[in-house]
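Recap from last week: sequence in, structure out.
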Amino acid sequence: MRILVINGPNLNFLGIREKGIYGSHNYDYLLGLLENKAKKLSITIETFQSNSEGEIIDRIQKAYFDKVDGIIINPGAFTHYSYAIRDALASIMVPKIEVHISNIHQREEFRHVSVTAAECNGQIVGLGLQGYLLAIEAIVDIIKNKKESQVD
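Predicted structure tokens:
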């Protein structure tokens, strides 16, 4: 099983930017959490981070050709206005979970709207980096349940 984790703008600055909101752990710490979870579940997790909308769209499209089994995405600020990322997500028929470290619904009003969430199976917000681990478990469960229902 292959899961792609896509992180949008400024996620590479974890541990540097707004520690009161995003915590003090850096991006490498997040990558380590994901790697450990992958080993524990015997799956492959590939990570991608970009501050560029076009690069994120390109990576989502590449996921189709790579035949990934699921996508976890934290679009960062693109969450609130990138219809292009939303459309790219709509093109990929695999389970998708949107993750946000902070609770976007408790922050500035412009952050309350996610244009990308509608193309995802679910959204996890406000649980810090733990949200990524929960998203991995959710994707794995969705895929396993789908395979089991196809066998029946």
